Amino acid sequence: MDFDFSPVWAGWPDLLNGALVTVQITACALLLGCVLGLLVGLGRLRRSHPLVYGLCTAYVALIRGTPLLVQLFILFFGLPHFGLLLPAFVCGVLGMGIYSGAYVSEIVRGAIESIERGQMEAARSIGMSYAQAMRTVILPQAVVRMIPPLGNEFIALIKNSALVSLLTIHDVMHEGQKIISVSYRSLEVYLAIAAVYFVLTGLTTLALRHIEQRLRAGGMVQ
């Protein structure tokens, strides 16, 4: 079998533009996922507040128990039935962010629970409120412990972003499909797309490793 990458080289600017869209939508989804994950993770620790704990637990169970693709389709195709028509980009960010938030929340909860209980008790004994102790004592230590599993979640989200092409978002996968439709060189194009995702995930891994090293060097974890 002969390989012909000429359609890939000819369409390389479109693939790069698609990669930029992939980075943008993934970055926005990561930000939303981290904010949601932090709030829900903290909510899952407040068993003394049954309503908060119940809502957070239901959110995690629902989102983790259904496919991301179905969630994206509900936002893009389902919401218009209720008179709410959102741009495809917004649906992609919301879908991936909400999906990621459920997994990030478990990472946050696990990291916080791994910190010795005595530290919270000691902080409360010197007059700190629960919120103050969490913000100044517990979270700074838990953050470093979150980095490795968060790295896995971020990488998974980058790869899952390929699904947003089904919402007509012009990401790298969508641009690749356009090249295939006129060149019929699917293998070569998919290899190029795989290379783009490999670079994106590799850069993410290096960035997170650098952040973890900086945090550890700063003495934020024992």
From TrEMBL:
Subcellular location: Cell inner membrane; Cell membrane
Entry's transmembrane regions: 20-40, 52-78, 84-104, 189-208
Domain of life: Bacteria
Keyword Transport annotated: yes
Keywords: Amino-acid transport, Cell membrane, Membrane, Transmembrane, Transmembrane helix, Transport
Residue stretches making up the ABC transmembrane type-1 domain: 19-208
UniProt keyword annotation of Transmembrane helix present: yes
PROSITE patterns in UniProt: ABC_TM1 (PS50928)
Topology with respect to the bilayer: Multi-pass membrane protein
Cross-referenced Gene3D superfamilies: MetI-like
NCBIfam families linked to this entry: HEQRo_perm_3TM
Its job: Part of the binding-protein-dependent transport system for glutamine; probably responsible for the translocation of the substrate across the membrane.
Family: Belongs to the binding-protein-dependent transport system permease family. HisMQ subfamily.
PANTHER family linked to this entry: GLUTAMINE TRANSPORT SYSTEM PERMEASE PROTEIN GLNP (PTHR30614:SF20), MEMBRANE COMPONENT OF AMINO ACID ABC TRANSPORTER (PTHR30614)
Protein name: Amino acid ABC transporter permease
